[in-house]
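Kindly go through the entry underneath: sequence plus fold tokens. Please state briefly how this chain folds according to its tokens.
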Amino acid sequence: MSYLIDNSDISKFIVQTGVITWTGTGSGWSYAHVTFPTPYKSNPIISVLPNTAYANPAKVPAIRNQFTTGFDIGFYNYSGTFQFMWWAFGEEE
């Protein structure tokens, strides 16, 4: 998905951010759900970043079930508590 935005369109777009703390099950995939405060018109661009220093490749997140109202983020075989920051960019509903 890409956006070509000129000055007349910019007011239609919003950026939302948040931080969530999540605890993995330690066996297979486990997911946390994020709900956007304001829904988007179509699925937004989403980015996530760890909010905790790490060196374990098991803490690389995967995004699934991306919708206009939120998304799921998951980690594979991780059993600790983890905090991440997210941001989403798209056209407001």
Remarks:
- The longest strand covers residues 13-23.
- The chain has a mean pLDDT of 82.
- The chain has one domain: 14-91.
- Residues 14-91 form a domain with the Immunoglobulin-like fold (CATH 2.60.40.2080).
